[in-house]
Design a protein that fits this description.
ASCH_domain; 5-stranded mixed β-sheet; PUA-like_sf; Archaeosine Trna-guanine Transglycosylase, Chain: A, domain 4; 113 residues; 33% strand; alpha+beta; ASCH domain-containing protein
Amino acid sequence: MPDQERVIRIRRPYLDLIAAGTKTIEVRVGYPGMRRIRPGQILLFESGDAHCRTQVTGVAEYPSFDAMLDAEDPEAIGSEGMSRTELLAACREIYPPEKEQLGVLAIHLRLTP
């Protein structure tokens, strides 16, 4: 259901980037629950007591982090000035290879009240 709000926990630095409007793509691996995310759906990202409400504008799937970084805007994924190597390392720090094998989702977001 696209109008169903979903809460997703996220590390605070990434939450801050989303709240600032800098990070407009959230990267996740293809867990069954993540695969159910659809355009139009409201996602409430939270870290501790901080939260940020967004709406999904699109979801793209890739076979690997490398393929995702080849196709998506790196500035929309990480903080300004992060290199491709740094972004790849950040993704792989969060998700080990066996999780990456589930597929990689680039969830496109926009802030919403």
